[in-house]
UniProtKB/TrEMBL annotation:
This is Ribonuclease D. InterPro entries: 3'-5'_exonuclease_dom, Exo_C, HRDC-like_sf, HRDC_dom, HRDC_dom_sf, RNase_D-like, RNaseH-like_sf, RNaseH_sf. Residues 216-296 form the HRDC domain. PANTHER family: RIBONUCLEASE D. Pfam families: DNA_pol_A_exo1, DNA_pol_A_exoN, HRDC. The lineage of its organism: Bacteria, Bacillati, Actinomycetota, Actinomycetes, Streptosporangiales. Transmembrane segments: none annotated. It comes from Actinocorallia longicatena. It comes from the Bacteria. SUPFAM superfamilies: HRDC-like (SSF47819), Ribonuclease H-like (SSF53098).
Amino acid sequence: MPLLEPREGIPPVVATDRDLDAVVAAFLAGTGPVAVDAERASGYRYGQRAYLIQLRREGAGTALIDPVACPNLNDLNRALADVEWVLHAANQDLPCLLELGMAPRNLFDTELAGRLLGHPRVGLGAMVESILGYALEKGHSAADWSTRPLPEDWLRYAALDVELLVDLRDALHEELVATGKLDWALQEFAAIVDAPPKQPRQDPWRRTSGIHRVRNRRALAIVREVWETREEIARELDLSPGRVLPDNAITEMALNQPRTMADLFLIPAVKGRNARRHTTQWLRAVSRARALPDSRLPDQNLPGDGPPPAHRWAERDPVAAARLSSARTVVAALADEHHLPSENLLQPDAVRRLSWSPPGDIAGDSVSAALSGLGARAWQADLVAIPLAKAWQRLDAKGIEAPQT
């Protein structure tokens, strides 16, 4: 059944301190969990800031808040301090909510609950339809939410996103209880709340699409210089970097190293309006990279803090390779038994790290402690540690040998 309108209609957008105070009072007086969602302008604006906040709580109805006009939501956060927040894919929205002074102490993530329960499709629309029987219209998920004023049909879409979120939470909670997975979910939700803020990625320019084609350090320096130039321009103009200059233009500059405007215009991706406005900056960036001494060129690869790529293990350490294969088999079998994705039972990075550097004593307790040190939750270690230890003990009994040095 299609869900076409919010129960109380589309609420007006809250864009003044006075109206925000009224929302704070209403939600403080409400009851039960609060549904929370945020709309960003990814692909249009620089960064991941929120351009609309949606809330719904029993007794308070739905509120649509313009965080551009009302950038400080500390009072709202205090009003909801002891309330369970219901979000879908919480990690996507929590960073932009935190920028506005909003951080839950207690949350329920409907997407993560769906994963733990083994639902085949865990998008909000799919889960609302399969569990509650309503079809949500999802046509505006990639819209430019920095648009002002926001069109009425966008606001309707935004209000509907929180309309049934608490209902979905209640149905999933019942299913978690029935399957004995509620404690798993609570541990996962607590881990999200307690997680420290993400640190900036080292050398983010290395994530440029197509950089695998760039095979020497001088060309990598061009990627870095052009990427950083694009980042400065995008920040200044408040535009998504890809709208200033697409990634494939950066890699083509690195591969072709243009020296003149004519060379630059031979690259098709530089012919867009925004890209052409900054051609002088692109050429200067390429020139700076060409002039760098070898000592200042970036390394071909970043030194890793973990094990080498798994495809090299068989040659470098066949014992570790055998452990990894065995661990993956154990995790996959347990995940299948408990009807959840393998990556939600145990993160693949933890599997690799533990297989490469296992505890000296391969026993359930030591494997459990090692898993906890790698960030596994108690429920994950309880399920995995003993079967993994037994599998590795069987490998030891077979006597797989390390390569001779």
